[in-house]
Amino acid sequence: GLAIIIFTLLTTIVLFPISLKVQKNSIKMVKLKPRLHEIAVRYAGDKDKIAEEQIKLYDEEHYSPAAGCLPMLLQIPLILGIINVIYNPLQHLLHLDKQVISAFIDKTIELLKIEKVNNSMHMKVIETVNNGKYLEEFQSLKDILPNYNINEIISSIQNFNTKFLGINLLEVPSISNFNAVCLVPILATLSMFLLSIIQNKENVLQKEQGFWGKWGVSIFLIAFTLNFTFTVPAGVGVYWIFTNLFAILQIYLLNAIHDPKKYIDYDAKSKSEYRLQEQKKIEQEKKKEYKENTEREKIDYKRFFNTDNKQLVFYSQKNGF
Fold it and tell me: Is there a contact between 235 and 86 (Cβ–Cβ < 8 Å)?
């Protein structure tokens, strides 16, 4: 348990320079908002020109829209590594040879008459070895593993403590069997909820979003956290909890080191947003007028080519036929 927490802290420290770079990139994005709004107003109605000018501005200011995804992408191999360690403690924590692990797994399958082997076999071996009634069966493995001290291996498995603060970190939480282990996914979900609140309030980019921009992804991540941590061993959930808690501390630290208020002219940003909104209203009025004219044009077209009542007609751009 302590190893997971220390590992989480160390990875947060190691990745901090990347997070700081993302912070600077995010501030740059918000700082560019007035100029982006200006482009949208100047070339209103010309989407291609707006996109072209935006890309040009990004290149000039060395802004990378994809940089914000980097910390999340780096978390993927870390979480996969944690999962691999926790699912394979005989290999990664007790450092047993593959030949020994394979023999113990085969013996466990034989004793428990397991038909379908899954990725939790290491945990099943530990559970079975700790069941006293199978002790002699495992001791008999000395016949097929003559070069290993089987009693010493069995003793190391029996002495392997998988509990942290009374919670078995190798156990997968289950709603149907609600116990102390179920506190882990609940705490992981609460930590994600707390992180979402602070991100929406303090993160330089996130707080610029509208309600659904802020909470759409947050709600998904909260629901995903609850579901995910109920399907993996509690040790993964512990990693998830402290990843979120350290992320909260990191947000405040990043804002202290590279304060957005020092670099962003929020007054200029507000004024440019007002001009953009006014331009959007004009565009909406134009679209409404165009729609009305289009509908009238269809009706006039039918009238013009109506052969039931032929007559001379005149067309006015303002009044129609």
Answer: yes
